[in-house]
Design goal:
two-stranded antiparallel ribbon, 3 helices, single chain, alpha+beta, flat, about 120 residues, five-stranded antiparallel beta sheet
């Protein structure tokens, strides 16, 4: 079963770390990402630019609205994502719990909803 977890880098906790400690956690996370890839768990993963680089779009009554920045003001911002293949939720939780940024923020483990489209109907 496929699971995704958005990386939430810890908000204020991550920002309060000395640069050397933050760099160490990032390095550990990159090493763990490679471990996941080599073990066959990893399907895809990536870091994201800061929320300030986001563009939010809305379409209402056929009209496009574009705004600079994230859609919500929150303390914790999405820092990246991991998409993995795990045997079940417990396996996905075990894998996610070893992610170094979990020590600062949180990791939300969510199953992927898989749809099949029957072309005969």
């Amino acid at each position: 079963m496929k699971y995704v977890w958005p990386g939430l880098p810890g908000g204020d906790a991550a920002g309060a770390l000395p640069a050397s400690e933050y760099s160490a956690i990032v390095s550990e996370a990159l090493d763990y990402r490679e471990e996941l890839r080599q073990s066959g768990y990893s399907i895809a993963s990536s870091l994201l630019q800061s929320a300030q680089a986001a563009t939010t779009i809305r379409v209402r009554n056929g009209k496009l609205s574009i705004a600079d920045g994230p859609f919500a003001k929150t303390k914790e911002q999405l820092g990246g994502f991991y998409l993995i293949e795990a045997s079940d939720l417990n396996d996905a939780i075990r894998v996610a719990s070893k992610m170094p940024p979990a020590r600062l923020g949180c990791i939300e483990v969510r199953p992927i909803a898989e749809f099949s489209f029957d072309s005969a109907s």
